[in-house]
Task: inverse folding
């Protein structure tokens, strides 16, 4: 899958998975921090995104702390998915 | 008092196990889950059928949670020598805490919730109140009956509510406590949050990896002074306070506002200075967040905290029962003037350098504090005093 | 001394009750369920709203405007039986679908009944007393007793007292299976007349700001009594005792708000109360407004405040007329499944 297409797909999945009701894919910038500022996600969301990566892309991340290094922004997530996806 | 836990089926058995530093946490042998071998729990090694036989309790729809509650309740009323007339008196209240209720039957609940034609015998047993209602019906109780669910502080809040009913003149006697049994629901829930430890928990240890779930029940009988008569007394409940951390649904704020306010409030209710507390039965779940924050709050309030320990390394985190089981243990501390070792802490948390008590000791105690901090920021602190 | 004085109320229900109340138009059940009319939740940050189950949403929607009126509220006291159950069911489904594999924790965290009180304290930064009573058909009454005790100790303190229950898949199915909802067709007009078992499923969030200060209060809750029994004779006897103990000398009950819900099996409890002591008293019923759910007594308390403020009663509520034009002492009698009963004595401030 093309990177642009994957980014778009991932944004839609994140919105749906985390029930981000007032957010559209176009609202999420590729390099905008997902946690803290930017999208403002929290620790429960980080665990949920790890589950998302597992269910949609077959990626296993055991330690949530490791996960936070990958879940910085859309760019880092997509890069990791492209390298490690099994689905 | 009455208690059943992974380290004993009675108050005496629990006391002996605590004194001997025994741990009741192990791989699950009775409870069926994918995590039976990888997530040790404080399982009571009595099957539900055995409990039912022992207690002669086999009403349709009865759950393991109700059976555990009945076990502890019966010990308490025997110990308190309550007559049937006293139990059914309109001035005798019953307040129970639980988080699981009948949802220990996770699979049955899932099936029933999708049925169209007919349900199982447990249809009316799933909710939290089913346990307290079971006891009310079995003993035909007529006072104020209530169930509280504030996650891990449920039973502590139940004890506080009972004490306040007596203070307000709405009851002369209150049987208060809590219960929870192991459930796929809670095992998977805590596991999803990555706070279940794959090893036996190490509260207040620098390398702690999370909590172990446990199951159990405890009830204590509170009585107004004028109705106590010549009965033996274990302790007095002199302080209690509840406060909310108001920070996050499942973790405590860095500064520990909720725990600090709860402990401080309990001291104020009891009109005691921090220095009067001889021992703290800490919440001490073994999670990174709780133990650090609780330590910070203890340091802030006490400056030099008194001896403390968590009994969750003996019995696991019994959720809705924790506040009551730990109240019994705190009362045992006072009644026998002794403290029990906290298990498995080898290296204290580097930021605070606070180490739990690590051996059994006979010690002069006037006041013991017991803390319970739950999901949703619900923080409760109780103070028991020698009488 | 009453338990407390009520100063503000809010109710999100299946009728027009929020933000302003207009009971002249009656909204009918849809698919035999009375579901709340949800408002826009402007006061709830989207980041928090997205996680909320319906019960937490409607609870927060009703409570936050009151907490904003009085930010220094000393505590939040909630009664609920069902809150969190929808999330509970979603989590159970995950356990089954993914065979206890990697699961998302959001549903689990939101599935505890104390999520309402917890979220309210988080949003309003309230460190005060925070408790959730879950004793099914007496969850709200226990919450009210709790508020009364807090206020007795500190009359100047303010508390948010409330009740929330919603129709979630899990509890609707279980109650249906157990025969608590009517199986035949009905409308609001014939709900009470059909003389068949079962009622209709309902939901609402009802919130009150209460304290020990009579100045500017809408109403006072003078007394409250709870009973666990299935014997209507006991209910009748305890009502007599309740009124002897709590009705002020020389005064009478002007209005009975009855929790009659169309279930023919439960009528005997209401008939016992109506016949013995309360002849010639005006009787109104309210469950065609909100349906049957464990904390419906809170809706009755809200209705008593509405009646005391408006001093008029829409015709569709009235079961029995009387000559009374003004209402001072209101008795609320409610039961849940014929096993948990409560009396509340509410009086106006005049």
Result:
């Amino acid at each position: 899958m093309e990177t642009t297409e994957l980014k778009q797909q991932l944004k839609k999945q994140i919105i749906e998975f985390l029930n981000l009701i007032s957010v559209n894919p176009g609202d999420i910038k590729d390099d905008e921090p997902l946690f803290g500022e930017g999208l403002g996600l929290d620790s429960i969301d980080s665990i949920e995104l790890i589950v998302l990566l597992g269910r949609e892309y077959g990626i296993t991340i055991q330690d949530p702390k490791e996960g936070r290094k990958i879940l910085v922004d859309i760019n880092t997530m997509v890069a990791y998915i492209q390298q490690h996806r099994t689905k | 008092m009455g208690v059943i836990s992974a380290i004993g089926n009675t108050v005496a058995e629990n006391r002996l196990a605590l004194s001997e530093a025994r741990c009741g946490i192990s791989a699950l042998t009775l409870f069926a889950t994918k995590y039976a071998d990888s997530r040790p729990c404080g399982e009571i090694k009595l099957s539900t059928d055995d409990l039912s036989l022992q207690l002669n309790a086999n009403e349709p729809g009865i759950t393991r949670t109700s059976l555990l509650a009945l076990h502890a309740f019966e010990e308490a009323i025997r110990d308190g020598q309550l007559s049937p007339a006293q139990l059914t008196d309109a001035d005798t209240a019953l307040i129970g805490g639980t988080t699981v209720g009948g949802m220990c039957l996770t699979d049955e609940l899932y099936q029933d919730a999708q049925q169209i034609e007919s349900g199982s015998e447990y249809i009316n047993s799933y909710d939290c109140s089913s346990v307290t209602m079971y006891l009310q019906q079995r003993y035909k109780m007529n006072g104020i009956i209530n169930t509280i669910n504030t996650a891990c502080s449920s039973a502590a809040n139940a004890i506080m509510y009972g004490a306040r009913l007596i203070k307000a003149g709405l009851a002369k006697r209150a049987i208060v406590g809590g219960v929870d049994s192991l459930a796929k629901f809670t095992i998977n829930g805590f596991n999803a949050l990555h706070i279940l430890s794959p090893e036996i928990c190490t509260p207040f240890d620098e390398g702690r990896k999370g909590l172990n779930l446990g199951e159990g029940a405890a009830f204590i009988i509170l009585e107004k002074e004028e109705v106590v008569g010549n009965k033996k007394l274990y302790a007095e409940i002199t302080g209690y306070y509840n406060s909310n951390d108001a920070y996050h649904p499942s973790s405590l704020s860095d500064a520990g506002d909720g725990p600090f306010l709860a402990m401080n409030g309990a001291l104020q209710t009891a009109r005691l200075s921090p220095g009067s507390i001889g021992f703290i039965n800490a919440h001490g779940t073994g999670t990174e967040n709780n133990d650090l924050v609780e330590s910070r709050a203890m340091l802030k309030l006490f400056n030099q905290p008194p001896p403390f320990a968590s009994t969750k390394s003996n019995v696991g985190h019994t959720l809705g029962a924790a506040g009551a089981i730990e109240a019994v243990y705190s009362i045992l501390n006072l009644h026998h003037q002794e403290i029990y070792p906290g298990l498995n802490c080898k290296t204290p948390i580097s930021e605070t350098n606070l180490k739990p008590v690590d051996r059994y000791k006979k010690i002069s105690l006037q006041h013991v504090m017991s803390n319970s901090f739950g999901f949703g920021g619900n923080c409760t602190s109780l103070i028991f005093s020698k009488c | 001394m009453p338990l407390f004085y009520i100063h503000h109320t809010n109710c999100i229900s299946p009728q027009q009750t929020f933000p302003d109340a207009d009971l002249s138009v009656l909204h009918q059940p849809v698919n035999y369920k009375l579901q709340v009319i949800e408002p826009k939740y402007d006061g709830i940050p989207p980041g928090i709203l997205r996680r909320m189950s319906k019960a937490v949403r409607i609870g927060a929607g009703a409570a936050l405007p009151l907490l904003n009126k009085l930010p220094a509220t000393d505590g939040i006291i909630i009664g609920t039986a069902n809150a969190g159950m929808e999330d509970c069911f979603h989590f159970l489904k995950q356990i089954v679908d993914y065979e206890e594999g990697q699961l998302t924790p959001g549903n689990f965290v939101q599935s505890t009944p104390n999520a309402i009180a917890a979220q309210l304290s988080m949003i309003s930064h309230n460190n005060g007393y925070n408790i959730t009573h879950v004793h099914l058909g007496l969850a709200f009454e226990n919450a009210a007793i709790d508020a009364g005790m807090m206020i007795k100790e500190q009359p100047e303190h303010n508390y948010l007292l409330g009740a929330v229950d919603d129709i979630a898949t899990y509890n609707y199915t279980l109650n249906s299976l157990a025969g608590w909802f009517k199986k035949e067709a009905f409308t609001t007009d014939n709900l009470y007349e059909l003389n068949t078992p079962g009622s209709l499923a309902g939901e609402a969030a009802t919130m009150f700001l209460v304290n020990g200060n009579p100045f500017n209060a809408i109403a006072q809750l003078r007394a409250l009594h709870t009973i666990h029994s299935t014997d209507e004779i006991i209910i009748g006897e305890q009502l007599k005792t309740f009124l002897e103990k709590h009705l002020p000398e020389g005064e009478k009950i002007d209005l009975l708000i009855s929790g009659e819900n169309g279930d023919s099996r439960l009528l005997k409890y209401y008939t016992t109360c109506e016949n013995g002591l309360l002849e010639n008293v005006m009787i109104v019923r309210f469950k065609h407004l909100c349906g049957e759910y464990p904390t419906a007594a809170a809706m009755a308390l809200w209705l008593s405040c509405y009646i005391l403020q408006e001093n008029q009663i829409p015709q569709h509520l009235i079961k029995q007329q009387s000559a009374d034009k003004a209402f001072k002492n209101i008795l609320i009698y409610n039961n849940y499944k014929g096993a948990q009963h409560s009396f509340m004595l509410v009086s106006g401030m005049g």
Q: What stands out?
A: Residues 3-19+33-84 of chain A form a domain with the Non-ribosomal Peptide Synthetase Peptidyl Carrier Protein; Chain A fold (CATH 1.10.1200). DSSP finds four helices and no strands in chain A. The mean pLDDT of chain A is 91.
